[in-house]
Design brief:
657 residues, alpha+beta, Rossmann fold, 27 helices, 44% helix, 10% strand, binds S-adenosylmethionine
């Protein structure tokens, strides 16, 4: 097995897959990850991970050459999406040696052995055969006859002869009768075995070993507590069994215990097994079906793949790939959906300290972080605000997509964080970026009239728990309320900072690295209701799960399906949410109908959002023109004497790059 293939992180195992692997009934599975999926559809379902992924044998591992060996789905040439054919050939050339050397002639014998063992276990299990012979009554009888062939009755006589069609006489009647009794008893025994065999393997497929699952009693739980809790493997088993019961509650529920009791126990077990507080456990659990929720919690225990973004201001992705391969880095494109992302599988050098890194040829950046910028789709010469931008992963990507033209205001309210933002802006060679340090809610008073605004909002981080497990215990209901207030205020300010008459844009992208509805759909819905001049539009990302149009008792805009959710257990990326708005000319005030709910939310809001008319485009243009003139003079070495009170009140403390 090649290094790259060994390390390519598949999506986490589903509950069923996990169960199968536990029971030794796993079928051979195809290792793939986001990069292997087709353009618009990253893998929908969880794939093997951790130890399991290492044992999986891919299609690609069988053949020679890059197309088969590199890409598990055999379409790797297209992975470099958007590049010309000769680029692909070039990439073949630069990657072939590495991949061939690793993978050629090594069809992953370990994986075969393990998976075959598992299959063998499954197939050699007695119950399957027993099930077969008992399924058909005739066959059953035959088999029964075979089975009986070797048997003798107590006195050593041959049962078969007793059961023959020979005439019944007074002499042989009793013996024949006893033989028939024994045969009947034997058949009854076989019936029982047959029934057990039938429940055994079927359950393995659909949630096995749970026929006798019952919830622990209060007494059991007390004893467990005294013993310091269940051992992890038993706790995990109870989670799985309980989840299976909940999946088919009518059939599998033990009598006398309600569904809510099962759910309550499951939540408690998840909280203690994965180490979450109860509040967050329930909040996250409620987002999914039972089995998907467990996949999600499981995925949060696994690190996401390491990815980097090629900085097209300084290099091309293929050149970067070549340079890093030469340094002993094993990598491949993240997927067809990105033409700048590379997934790093293995490196003999620290990936955050290579000469290429220091020279700004790439950014260490999670794949999910590309998505809001893809949705924003900045164009050259535009004027863009990144409202909460530190440490600059997205701002520098925006700058690169604009090819260093136009202007990007990279703002962050946290002054300390603007240092790393500034450092990244310099390292990446972004010359069109202005770093500023305001509370985002001060926009558009500070400056507005933007073609596009990215609000990569401060959030709870429930999408990045694998990176920051402290979230599991640190988030409370209050945090979500406060965050929601801030997010609602920021999103209105983002919308109000747009120039609705922009010739090229007029778009706001809202994103979070959280999966909760409070921070995502609820915020977007609030913005839609508060600003009737905005509408949701397609993110243009091409994959992701649709946002909720309703969630529990809440009903959201019917367009909410245009927003996209990304999950660790589905997309093998950090959990993320992306929404894109088109900002139209403001509707006249008298046309704006505020719902009672919005009014109530406004009353509860901590700070009133900035007014719709807080920005004067003409005044702003005059200031920009003036600064540009001064910049030209400066570059010509002409000193400009500062005038007293020259800067208008409230003008940003900016650093230009
Ligand atoms: C998710 S992070 C942004 C990550 C950034 N977009 C990137 O790609 O590197 C959220 C940022 O919001 C900033 N922030 C928090 N409250 C803010 C506010 N009221 N106004 C502006 N920025 C804020 C935080 O300091 C943090 O850097």
């Amino acid at each position: 097995m090649g290094r790259k293939q060994r390390l390519k992180q598949g999506d986490p195992a589903t509950l069923d897959e996990f169960k199968k692997s536990q029971k030794g009934s796993a079928k051979k599975r195809k290792a793939r990850d986001l990069g292997d999926s087709n353009d618009a559809q990253p893998p929908k379902k969880s794939k093997p991970q951790n130890g399991r992924a290492e044992t999986v044998k891919s299609k690609g591992a069988k053949g020679k050459g890059k197309a088969k060996e590199v890409d598990i789905d055999e379409d790797s040439d297209e992975q470099w999406g958007g590049i010309a054919i000769d680029d692909t050939q070039y990439l073949d050339a630069i990657t072939k040696f590495d991949f061939e050397e690793d993978d050629q002639g090594d069809p992953d014998p370990d994986a075969d052995a393990i998976m075959d063992d598992e299959n063998d276990d499954f197939l050699s299990g007695g119950p399957v055969h027993q099930l077969e012979f008992s399924d058909d009554s005739d066959a059953g009888l035959d088999d029964g006859d075979d089975f009986l062939k070797g048997a003798s009755d107590e006195d050593g006589s041959d049962v078969e002869s007793d059961d023959s069609d020979g005439p019944i006489t007074a002499k042989n009647m009793e013996r024949k009768s006893r033989a028939l009794d024994r045969k009947a008893a034997r058949e009854a025994e076989m019936d029982i075995e047959e029934a057990q065999a039938a429940t055994g393997p079927q359950d393995e497929e659909e949630g096995g070993g749970i026929a006798f699952f019952d919830l622990p009693t209060a007494e059991d739980l007390e004893q467990e507590k005294e013993a310091g809790g269940l051992p992890p493997d038993e706790l995990q088993k109870r989670i799985q069994d309980n989840a299976k019961v909940l999946k088919d509650f009518k059939t599998l529920a033990a009598t006398g215990r309600s569904r809510s009791e099962h759910v309550e126990q499951l939540l408690q077990d998840i909280a203690s097994y994965y180490g979450y507080n109860e509040f967050l456990t329930e909040k996250l659990f409620n987002l999914f079906s039972v089995s998907e929720a467990i996949e999600f919690f499981e995925a949060n225990e696994v690190p996401r793949p390491v990815t980097i973004r090629a900085n097209t201001l300084r290099t091309r992705r293929r050149d970067l790939a070549q340079a890093l391969i030469n340094r002993g880095v094993t990598l491949e494109p993240v997927g067809k959906w990105s033409n700048v992302g590379l997934q790093v599988f293995e490196s003999t050098v620290p990936i955050g300290a290579t000469p290429e890194y220091l020279a700004g040829h790439y950014m260490l950046q999670a794949a999910s972080s590309f998505l809001p910028v893809i949705a924003l789709a900045p164009e050259s010469n535009e004027r863009i605000l990144d409202m909460a931008s530190a440490p600059g992963g997205k701002a520098t990507y925006i700058s690169a997509l604009m090819r260093n033209t136009g202007i990007v205001f990279a703002n962050d309210s946290n002054k300390a964080r603007t240092k790393s933002l500034t450092a990244n802006v310099h390292r990446m060679g972004c010359k069109n970026v202005v770093v500023c340090n305001y509370d985002g809610r001060e926009f558009p008073k500070v400056i507005g009239g933007f073609d596009r605004v990215l609000l990569d909002s401060p959030c709870s981080g429930t999408g990045v728990i694998s990176k920051d497990p402290s979230v599991k215990l640190s988030k409370s209901e209050k945090d979500f309320q406060l965050l929601g207030d801030l997010q609602r205020q920021l999103i209105l300010c983002a919308i109000d900072s747009i120039n609705p008459e922009s010739k090229t844009g007029g778009y706001v992208t809202y994103s979070t690295c959280s999966v909760t509805v409070d921070e995502n759909e609820a915020v977007v819905d609030y913005a839609l209701r508060k600003r009737p001049n905005v509408e949701l539009v397609d993110t243009g990302i091409g994959f992701g799960v649709d946002g909720f149009t309703n969630y529990r008792e809440k009903k959201f805009s019917k367009d909410m399906h245009l927003t996209k959710r990304f999950y660790p257990h589905v997309h093998n990326m950090d959990g993320f949410f992306v929404a894109k708005f088109k900002v139209n000319k403001p509707t006249r005030k008298k046309d704006v109908q505020k719902s009672a709910e919005v009014e109530a939310e406004e009353e509860n809001a901590v700070v009133e959002p900035g007014p719709l008319t807080g920005f004067d485009a003409e005044e702003d243009q005059a200031i920009i023109d003036k600064w540009e003139r001064q910049h030209v003079l400066k570059t010509k070495g002409i000193k400009i004497r500062p005038k007293a009170n020259a800067a208008p009140k409230g003008s940003p403390a900016v650093t230009a790059h």
